């Protein structure tokens, strides 16, 4: 209980006082203790499925006392579980091959190790915040007696140092021992310190993979999307300018005719629905909550990308996640302002309910899904469960930070942007929607709307998925920023065209259509994740599958809400513009 509270306060203070992971200075004096932290172990083919290192029956070294370790919220959520290895390592002091402990192969340990070796388990450690990966063991196929399982027992650490700082660590696994019941397996380690000329600031570079991320395909796809943007923007402005000019000409000619001629004349097109376009969307509460959350998501995405680009956050364990949570909480007024303002403009009355829905829509989705995955994880005895203290911390942030800030945003939004100021009056009686061709139906427009935006981002999705599910560190946030802008522009252009066709078919239900047409690109992203799962990963089993598709669904939903909002916002500007220039009797 007390430990939980202590931990909670640590987590909370870590979130609010410092966004950075730890307060290590990263400088050592000779013979000063260097801590080797054991982090996680898990199958190579799913980077996200991890268990605590000592969930396998490994043994610890003899050393007991260590300096303290504080975990940040981001680390806790990502399943980082640093535990002291017990190995005695001192700065710039070589250790010859030394035995540090012994494991007795009981029935249970034997089974656990065989399972781990069979599933290509890797483990991860940290020295001075530098990650180190090592493999647990190896299978030797033996055609007669069945496979033999071996485990690596000797860890050779080569540590490079530059003056008083650690700049490079290499791990070599040596000495294979066959796993047999009843055996005693000794574990040994060895540390060699070498002077290195690597600059401390550049020490992380060896983990980055420029060949992968700066591949020609990456540049090519950015270039391609860029051309698409230019083409689309040109196309949209050209078509719309021409068509609109023609429409305006026709409408103003109509004005010169007398009433009888007008009745006989060909009155059709988007002007006909001027009395209905500004009719509130159906389900205004849900709609404004989605738009508010979309603004929120877009703000957070942009802020986190820029902060990461600027602060190289990817080198710090869990700090991107901590930063995202911090920014998400801090940006809550954005959600209230836009969601609340829109709801009020649509004439909504139960604004408190709307605000609650707006504030908790995304947190509930995320927590609900995480809870479900956690539940399956517990069922499968997987220990990547989110700790209780972390859950309480997240709940506290939702209740005591996000909610009040959303309230402030909502009140300001209702006061400043809450008055409906539409260029056309809304008729009392809704106009019937005429029959139209099948491809003008909102459902079809929605499905088609996502194709081009998806086309502009799917190569980037490949890089993002690969860095999330495989051992690559994503660091090209400049590309990501560019793709973010490209996605926004393409989405807005495409939805404007879609809405224009819809309104021309005298269908005024443009709000949901524009939102969904833009959001449907996320549906294609989700479909793409099926392809990625089948052809690019080697995951299997219910746990990994749920994990993968659960998190991908979450990602797609968030992306969908964000794109949908971009589409809606672009379109509503467009709609206001065309209806404010048309003359209405
Ligand atoms: C680690 O390995 C790399 C590549 O093999 C080598 O360039 C570097 O010098 C090694 N570092 C140490 C400290 O041995």
Produce the secondary structure layout.
Layout: H1 2-17, E1 36-43, E2 51-52, H2 73-77, E3 83-84, E4 95-104, H3 107-118, E5 121-127, E6 130-135, E7 137-140, E8 148-162, E9 165-178, E10 184-195, H4 210-213, H5 216-256, H6 259-264, H7 284-311, H8 319-330, H9 332-345, H10 351-379, H11 388-417, H12 442-449, H13 451-469, H14 477-504, H15 510-536, H16 541-581
Parallel strand pairs: 8-10
Antiparallel strand pairs: 1-2, 1-3, 1-5, 4-10, 5-6, 7-8, 8-9
2-acetamido-2-deoxy-beta-D-glucopyranose (NAG) binds at residues 158-160, 168, 170, 194, 196.
InterPro entries: EMP70
Membrane topology: Multi-pass membrane protein
Signal peptide: 1-21
Keywords:
585 residues; alpha+beta; 3 domains; five-stranded mixed beta sheet; 14% strand; binds 2-acetamido-2-deoxy-beta-D-glucopyranose
Structure description:
The chain has three domains: 21-207, no CATH class; 222-238 and 440-585, no CATH class; 282-419, no CATH class. Helix content is 55%, strand content 14%. It is built from 16 helices and ten strands. The protein has helices spanning 2-17, 73-77, 107-118, 210-213, 216-256, 259-264, 284-311, 319-330, 332-345, 351-379, 388-417, 442-449, 451-469, 477-504, 510-536, 541-581, and strands at 36-43, 51-52, 83-84, 95-104, 121-127, 130-135, 137-140, 148-162, 165-178, 184-195. A hairpin with a 2-residue loop joins strand 5 (121-127) and strand 6 (130-135). Helix 14 (477-504) packs across helix 16 (541-581). The N and C termini lie far apart (72 Å). Mean pLDDT is 86; it is low at 1-23. 2-acetamido-2-deoxy-beta-D-glucopyranose is lined by residues 158-160, 168, 170, 194, 196.
């Amino acid at each position: 209980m007390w430990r939980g509270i202590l931990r909670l306060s640590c987590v909370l203070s870590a979130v609010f006082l410092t966004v950075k992971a730890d307060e290590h200075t990263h400088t050592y004096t000779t013979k000063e203790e260097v801590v080797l932290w054991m982090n996680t172990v898990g199958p190579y083919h799913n980077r996200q499925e991890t268990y605590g290192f000592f969930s396998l029956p490994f043994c610890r070294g003899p050393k007991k006392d260590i300096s303290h370790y504080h975990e940040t919220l981001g680390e806790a959520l990502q399943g980082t579980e640093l535990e002291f290895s017990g190995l005695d390592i001192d700065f710039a002091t070589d250790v010859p091959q030394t035995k540090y402990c012994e494991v007795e192969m009981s029935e249970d340990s034997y089974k656990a190790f065989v399972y781990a070796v069979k599933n290509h388990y890797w483990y991860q450690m940290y020295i001075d915040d530098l990650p180190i990966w090592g493999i647990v063991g190896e299978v030797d196929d033996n055609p007669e007696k069945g496979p033999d399982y071996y485990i690596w027992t000797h860890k050779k650490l080569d540590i490079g140092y530059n003056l008083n700082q650690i700049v490079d660590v290499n791990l070599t696994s040596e000495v294979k021992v066959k796993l047999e019941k009843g055996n005693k397996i000794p574990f040994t380690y060895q540390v060699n310190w070498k002077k290195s000329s690597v600059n401390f600031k550049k020490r992380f570079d060896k983990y980055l993979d420029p060949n992968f991320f700066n591949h020609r395909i990456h540049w090519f796809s950015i270039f391609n999307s860029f051309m698409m943007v230019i083409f689309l923007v040109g196309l949209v402005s050209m078509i719309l300018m021409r068509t609109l000019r023609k429409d305006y000409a026709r409408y103003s000619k109509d004005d010169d005719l007398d009433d009888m001629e007008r009745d006989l004349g060909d009155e059709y097109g988007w002007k006909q629905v001027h009395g209905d376009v500004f009719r509130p969307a159906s389900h205004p509460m849900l709609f404004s909550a989605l738009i508010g959350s979309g603004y929120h998501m877009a703000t957070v995405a942009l802020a986190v990308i820029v902060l990461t680009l600027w602060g190289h956050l990817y080198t710090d364990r869990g700090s991107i996640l901590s930063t995202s949570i911090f920014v998400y909480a801090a940006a809550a007024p954005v959600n209230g302002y836009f969601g609340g303002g829109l709801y009020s403009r649509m004439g909504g009355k139960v604004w408190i309910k709307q605000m609650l829905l707006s504030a908790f829509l995304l947190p509930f989705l995320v927590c609900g899904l995480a809870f479900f995955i956690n539940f399956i994880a517990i069922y499968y005895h997987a220990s990547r469960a989110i700790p209780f203290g972390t859950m309480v911390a997240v709940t506290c942030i939702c209740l005591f930070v996000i909610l009040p800030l959303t309230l402030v945003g909502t009140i300001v939004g209702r006061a400043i942007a809450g008055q409906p100021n539409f260029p056309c009056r809304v008729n009392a009686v809704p106009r019937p929607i005429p029959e139209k061709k099948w491809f003008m139906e909102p459902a079809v427009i929605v499905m088609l709307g996502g194709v081009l935006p998806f086309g502009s981002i799917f190569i980037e999705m490949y890089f993002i998925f690969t860095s999330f599910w495989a051992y690559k560190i994503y660091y090209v946030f400049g590309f990501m920023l560019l793709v973010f802008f490209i996605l926004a522009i393409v989405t807005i252009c495409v939805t404007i065209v879609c809405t224009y066709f819809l309104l021309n078919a005298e269908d005024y239900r443009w709000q949901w259509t524009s939102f969904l047409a833009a959001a449907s690109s996320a549906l294609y992203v989700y479909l793409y994740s099926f392809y990625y799962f089948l052809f690019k990963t080697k995951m299997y089993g219910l746990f990994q599958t749920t994990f993968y598709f659960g998190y991908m669904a979450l990602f797609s939903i968030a992306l969908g809400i964000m794109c949908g909002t971009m589409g809606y916002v672009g379109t509503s500007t467009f709609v206001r513009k065309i209806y404010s220039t048309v003359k209405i009797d």
